[in-house]
Design goal:
The chain has 438 residues and is α+β, with helices and mostly antiparallel strands. It has helices spanning 3-22, 29-70, 80-92, 128-131, 133-138, 158-164, 203-208, 214-221, 239-252, 267-305, 307-315, 320-350, 353-375, 387-393, 401-423, 431-437, and strands at 73-76, 96-110, 116-124, 140-144, 153-157, 171-177, 191-199, 209-213, 228-233, 258-261. It has a 6-stranded mixed β-barrel. It is elongated, with a radius of gyration of 32 Å. The mean pLDDT is 81.
């Protein structure tokens, strides 16, 4: 069939499909089609908005962990003689954004009055805060500055500082310190002056992490302390490919190294976040299942009600597959229109979550205020806005293009499959039987 013939066939199929949806003897097709389209629209809109807010909520944790704590790739077991060659290999890899050496140990930290709190002490280069854009973005200074220029400088997480009740300018001591065999477990001489307090989007980092100069780490952690190399990538999803590439390059240079991806670091936490997201996706996706079932039932009724028109189309030469396509086209149109409208509304909601949550908070406040004023005026002074809405408003929504496309396709495919299943009943009766019954 040439292009003109195919276009002509699709045109009449679409015309008949649209007419079947708009007009029938009882006037129900148009309403059914509208409700199905509305269901797809609200399903796509809800799923995009919910997933965007959930992505924002989860990425606050994930970004803080990867940029501040775990990095995208961790490398250990590199000797001092191999260090320079390994650093060069990483810098030559086009997918590597930066590489940062550091030491890490556990400590029992005390303030000047003897108050104690456990902490993770990390020794890093003093210029990391300036040179590492991701680290700088995730670290928000609450008090002081991220200044590790002096050997006795330390920067604390603000929750850790609050537990120790110390502020900028005060002194803390690393009373108990894990490290190499040449390090004293207990010491009252490892004193550091607090130069800054920071916070991130992950509370565990705020309550446990502290940073000192890498030279101070070499001094206090001992000669046998393990040096770790944190690698950040241009795309965190390329971790497996980059690890394979670096392992191959390191083997060629006879460099022994152990690699660990961010997926393995805090594996249980990332796994819990993924399960939470998948369950939410599954629960909201049930909307499409319900809409698909409704479309299937509505399409079966439409096929039954249109049996005389179907018989006439068959009698004048329409092929059975073309008649089936009429109803499949109806399902595709319903899904496409609903999905498009749902994507537009879902994206609008996602980029305006702060305004919407604040608006809902105001509406709920005034609604409660009016009801209380009418029926319980003595408690009017206790009416106030729900603070939880302000928390939700401050969660930045994250829109992932791949997820939006997947949700839109889900919205199109569900009515398409329902229409295809319903159209299988077309022309089960012969043309003569249908016309005789009429």
């Amino acid at each position: 069939m040439n292009k003109a013939g195919l276009f002509s066939k699709l045109k009449w199929i679409n015309t008949v499909s649209s007419r079947f949806a708009r007009v029938d003897r009882k006037g129900r097709s148009a309403v059914t089609s509208f409700l199905a389209t509305l269901g797809i629209c609200f399903g796509v809109m809800t799923l995009i908005a919910v997933m965007s807010v959930m992505n924002g909520f989860q990425m606050n944790f994930i970004d803080a962990i990867m940029e501040v704590s775990s990095y995208h790739i961790r490398v250990t077991d590199i000797s001092e003689e191999q260090e320079q060659n390994f650093m060069q290999l990483c810098q030559q890899n086009k997918n590597v954004l930066s590489i940062t050496p550091f030491y890490e140990a556990q400590t029992l930290m005390t303030d000047e009055t003897g108050r104690e709190n456990s902490a993770i002490i990390r020794a890093i280069d003093s210029n990391v805060y300036k040179n590492d854009a991701g680290f700088h973005k995730e670290i928000t200074m609450v008090e002081g500055s991220f200044d590790l220029s002096q050997p006795d400088s330390i920067v604390l997480g603000y929750t850790l500082a609050r537990q120790l009740r110390v502020s900028v300018g005060e002194t803390v001591n690393l009373l108990v310190l894990s490290g190499g065999s040449d390090v004293s477990l207990l010491s009252g001489d490892r004193n550091f002056i607090v130069t800054g307090l920071f916070k991130t989007g992950y509370s565990d980092i705020n309550s446990a992490y502290s940073f000192i100069n890498i030279q101070a780490g070499q001094k206090y952690f001992g000669k046998s302390a393990e040096k770790i190399y944190g690698i950040k990538l241009k795309n965190s999803q390329d971790d497996a490919r980059v690890i394979a590439s670096l392992e191959k390059a390191a083997a060629g240079e006879n460099i022994d190294a152990a690699f660990q991806s961010w997926r393995e670091y805090n594996k249980s936490f990332f796994g819990a976040l993924r399960i939470e997201k998948n369950m939410l996706l599954l629960l909201v996706a049930i909307i499409f299942v319900v809409v698909g079932i409704n479309i299937y039932n509505g399409m079966r009724r439409l096929v039954f009600e249109r049996r005389s028109e179907i018989a006439i189309l068959s009698a004048i030469g329409a092929e059975n597959k073309d008649i089936k396509t009429i109803f499949i086209m109806r399902g595709f149109t319903t899904g496409a229109i609903g999905a498009f409208a749902g994507v537009v509304l879902g994206l609008l909601i996602s980029v305006n979550t702060e305004f919407l949550f604040n608006a809902v908070a105001r509406v709920m406040f005034w609604l409660q205020y009016v009801v209380t004023a009418l029926f319980n005026r003595q408690n009017l002074m206790y009416v106030q806005e729900n603070s939880s809405y302000a928390v939700y408003a401050n969660i930045p929504a994250r829109i992932f293009f791949r997820e939006v496309v997947m949700i839109a396709l889900f919205g199109i495919i569900s009515p398409l499959l329902a229409s295809w299943a319903a159209s299988k009943n077309v022309l089960k009766m012969t043309v003569a039987e249908v016309l005789h019954n009429e």
